[in-house]
Design brief:
about 290 residues, Cyclophilin, 2 domains, seven-stranded mixed β-barrel
């Protein structure tokens, strides 16, 4: 059972939940930028939560079914049609043999996730089907004519529609200060928490770059490379923060002033260029 890519859109990548536990080999976890959206699309289709799906940036994806299959779209919400007729967002819908699914650019959020019953059976690399854009691991971005093999379908569960994950308005993320906050002035740490930051157009899966006031260092010597995790807020020599995404390097030489809590990093997947981001100190939960 296959789907044929008739148009890949701006950037369509195969993603699952990534490659955990390989940092010692220099390999980051990678995987879906918006893990919540990936789990949602698989739940709607009765798939395992980690089944591979398509992460779509910018719309323009067109898939043609060679056999009947259930499909669903989650994440950022945009136009969804089957042979030109509107189809529901956040719901499993049938795609009959010969029909075309078209997914447009998201109107709320940045990335959409297109799942199919049974998941995508792309060849695994280091235990995952995910594309790591920094390391060059996993399948290439989808291209016209690609044929996507599908796994055996599961019975479709009776679930309610899921709401769009893309949101408008300011994005507030909880952070843990450090581990290298002592490389910055007290004023810089205060600026991080009190300023309005804006998502730069150069952001990608490696890191979300932010514009705003420069964060001044208290030390100017070089920091030896040290381990980094998803959500680390590195600060460049120019004082600009970068929040590391799923394809981040496993080590880095820029000091990390704070780390976005892991449960909040999915929200950055839907942060469109220009969106306002604010940071707040994490509150301890009992």
């Amino acid at each position: 059972m296959t789907l044929v890519v008739e148009s890949p859109g701006l950037l369509s990548l195969v993603q699952d939940l990534g490659r955990p536990g390989l940092g010692h080999l220099g390999v980051s976890r990678s995987g879906a930028f918006d893990r919540t959206a990936l789990r949602q699309v698989n739940a709607l289709l009765g798939n395992h939560p980690g089944c591979a799906a398509i992460e779509l940036l910018g719309g323009g994806l067109v898939l043609r079914a060679e056999r009947s299959v259930n499909v669903a779209v989650t994440g950022g919400a945009g136009s969804i049609t089957i042979d030109g007729d509107p189809a529901a967002y956040g719901r499993a819908v049938p795609l009959q043999s010969g029909q075309r699914l078209a997914v447009g650019a998201s109107r709320s959020g940045l990335r959409s996730y297109v799942g199919v019953s049974g998941g995508l059976l792309i060849a695994e690399e280091l235990g995952s089907r995910s594309t790591d854009t920094l390391a060059g691991l996993g399948p290439a971005a989808l291209a016209v004519g690609d044929r996507l093999e599908l796994g055996p379908p599961s019975p479709r569960p009776d679930l309610e529609d899921v709401p769009p994950l893309g949101r408008t308005g300011d994005l507030t993320l909880e952070v843990a200060i450090g581990p290298r906050d002592d490389w910055f002035t007290v004023a810089a740490v205060r600026l991080l928490l009190e300023s309005s930051w804006h998502v730069d157009t150069s952001s990608d899966r490696v890191g979300v770059r932010l514009t705003g006031p420069a964060l001044e260092r208290s030390r100017t010597d070089e920091l030896p490379s040290e381990p980094c995790v998803r959500g680390s807020i590195q600060v460049t020599a120019e004082g600009r923060p970068i929040v590391l995404g799923p394809d981040h390097p496993v080590t880095g030489g820029y000091p990390v002033i704070a780390v976005v809590l892991d449960r909040h990093t999915d929200q950055l997947a839907q942060a469109v260029p220009g969106r306002t981001v604010r940071f707040t100190r994490a509150v301890a939960r009992s």
